[in-house]
């Protein structure tokens, strides 16, 4: 499976998308980040690390990723992967950039085998790490903004 935080950042960074689409995605991403920061207690250092493309070093930072995953259907509340619901969530991308959509689905399917963990926050981080690695392998060089 794949980190939807990465999905969204890739989508926002993609040049082939309309500015209107990028703006909508960015607004959703910002609202989710604000909610998750409050919910998880993630610090400014946690957020700075994520922006710097570094895996979280605190549990709060890992839970920030899990929170984002829940909002964007990558993971369910119980920590399991979102399955077909997560892929369906990508449908608006298909209309704007079919090639990028196909890559995002491929990333999702590849990362479905990321190492699991009983802690959904740790699992979320494993998914995000896999998503970044796979995005780069598919030629998406800057999966984060």
Percentage of residues assigned to helices:
55-70%
Classify the beta-strand content into a percent band: under 5%
Class, according to the CATH hierarchy? Mainly Alpha
CATH topology: Recoverin, domain 1
The gross shape turns out to be globular
For the biggest sheet, the summary is: none
Rg calc: 14 Å
Low-confidence stretches: 1-8
The overall strand count is: 0
Rounded average pLDDT: 83
Number of helices: 8
Looking at the overall shape, the CATH architecture is Orthogonal Bundle
Structural class: mainly alpha
Number of domains: 1
Q: H/E element string?
A: HHHHHHHH
- CATH homologous superfamily classification: Pheromone/general odorant binding protein domain
End-to-end distance:
20 Å
Describe the structure.
There is one protein chain. The protein has helices at 4-13, 19-40, 44-51, 59-71, 84-88, 91-96, 98-111, 120-137. With 145 residues, it is mainly α. The two termini are 20 Å apart.
């Amino acid at each position: 499976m794949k980190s939807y935080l990465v999905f969204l950042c890739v989508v926002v960074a993609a040049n082939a998308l309309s500015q209107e689409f990028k703006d909508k995605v960015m607004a959703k991403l910002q609202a989710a980040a604000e909610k998750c920061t409050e919910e998880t207690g993630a610090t400014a250092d946690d957020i700075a690390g994520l922006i710097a493309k570094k895996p979280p070093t605190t549990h709060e930072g890992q839970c920030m990723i899990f929170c984002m995953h829940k909002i964007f259907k990558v993971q369910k509340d119980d920590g399991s992967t979102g399955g077909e619901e997560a892929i369906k969530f990508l449908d608006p991308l298909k209309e704007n950039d079919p090639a990028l959509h196909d890559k995002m689905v491929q990333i999702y399917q590849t990362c479905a085998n990321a190492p699991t963990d009983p802690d959904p926050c740790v699992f979320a981080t494993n998914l995000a790490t896999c998503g970044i690695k796979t995005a780069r392998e598919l030629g998406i060089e800057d999966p984060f903004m």
